[in-house]
Amino acid sequence: MAEAVERAGASIESAKKAFDEAEMGVMDEIVELAKPRPRKVSIEAVLANIPGLPVNPASVYFGVRDSVSAIKRSKEFGWLHLLRDIRRAADGE
C-alpha cells in the first residue's frame, strides 16, 4: 500500500488507480495459489497417512510447510484485507 501511495504522489486518482492495479495483481496470485491440484493432494494424503510409524516424517513436513506458507501469505496479502475493510467502512457496511 505504501508503494502505491508513494507512486501516486498527491493525486487521489493516481493512488486509486495504483491500488486497483495492485489489487488485481494480488487477486491473480491468490487465484493461482488456490488452483486445485488433486494429484498433489492425493499423493501428500497417502504419504502423510502411512501407518506403523510413531511419528510420520511426511506428515510433520507437510504440516510445517503448510504453516510457513500460511504465515507467508498472511504477510504478503494482509494489506488486501486492510483495503477491503477500508472500502467496507467507506461504504457504510
Strand content: under 5%
Secondary-structure element string: HHHH
Shape: elongated
Q: What structural category arises from helix and sheet content? A: mainly alpha
Between the first and last Cα atoms, what is the distance in angstroms? Answer: 22 Å
Count of strand segments: 0
Largest sheet: none
Could you walk me through the main structural features you see in this protein, from its secondary elements to its overall organization?
With 93 residues, the protein is mainly α. 81% of the residues lie in helices and 0% in strands. It contains 4 helices and no strands. It has helices spanning 2-8, 12-33, 38-48, 57-91. Helix 1 packs antiparallel against helix 2. The radius of gyration is 20 Å and the shape is elongated.
Tell me the layout of helices and strands.
Layout: H1 2-8, H2 12-33, H3 38-48, H4 57-91
Helix pairs in contact: 1-2
Describe the structure in brief.
The protein is 81% helix and 0% strand. The protein is an all-alpha fold and 93 residues long.
